[in-house]
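Reopening: structure tokens for the zinc ion complex, inputs below.
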Amino acid sequence: MNTLAIDVGGSKFSIAVFEGETMVIRESRSTDREGGRQWMLVQIAQIVRAWAAERRLERCAIGFGGPVDFPSQRVALSTHVGGWQEFDFSGWIRDAFHLPAVMDNDANVGALGEACYGAGQGFDPLFYMTLSTGIGGGIVQQGRLWRGADSYAGEIGHLTIRPDGPECLCGARGCFERMCCGLWLERDHGRTAKELFRNPPFVERYVKDLALGLKACIMLLNPARIVIGGGIAKAGDALFHPLRLELRRQITAWSRARIDVVPALLGDDSVLYGALALANERSIE
Ligand SMILES: [Zn+2]
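Re-run output (same inputs, fresh job):
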């Protein structure tokens, strides 16, 4: 079975083809925020048409960087790139390339990728957080996503961390995403996360907020492991070591909930592998 996998993120998008479980081709491009949806669909169509000329594609799965209404397969919203609201992305794929398609939020898809092929293998239930342009989360139990009543489970980016903090794009104040995501780190400090993590006093302050958000997940879900993906997780020990110490400080003393927090194993490909896992989970063919 050949699966086309698409990962639409806030700052870049990636496409790959899997033959069975082996990734055989992959391409990644930066997102043109001005160009919005139409620009990206043209790019995706170019790449897929070229690939389809060389190999048979049989199905498609998409991880989208924003809330997705799973039952209707429509994008609910994209706060980072315009023009996607209510878009039936799976339907567009079906019409354009005659492939059955399925779509979910990228954090859900990344969670499935790490649970099935990455750092979450053997850890059940798993909580996955993407820490990049924005923040999202996904919950996997026994190989399946826990989506909640309205497809909004795991949307931790807008947990309130600092009630009197700065205003978030969602209109609330001091959201987890507002305090910790890459977009706002750059806007607030004028430097990339990578540069900021070379400054230990900054990291000490940053992990306090990061741990506040993760503590809520640990107390609510008691996951066997938390896997963090996205660009910021690439900081490695410079981030994860102080984060674990801070979580131990913050977690309620009587709690025996484990504190097992690790970076994603699949790096930039958690969502692409997750798309493969989503196609398998939904048995689309
Ligand atoms: Zn918010």
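The chain has two domains: 2-108+268-281, 122-265. The longest strand covers residues 22-30. Marking as resolved unless the reporter disagrees.
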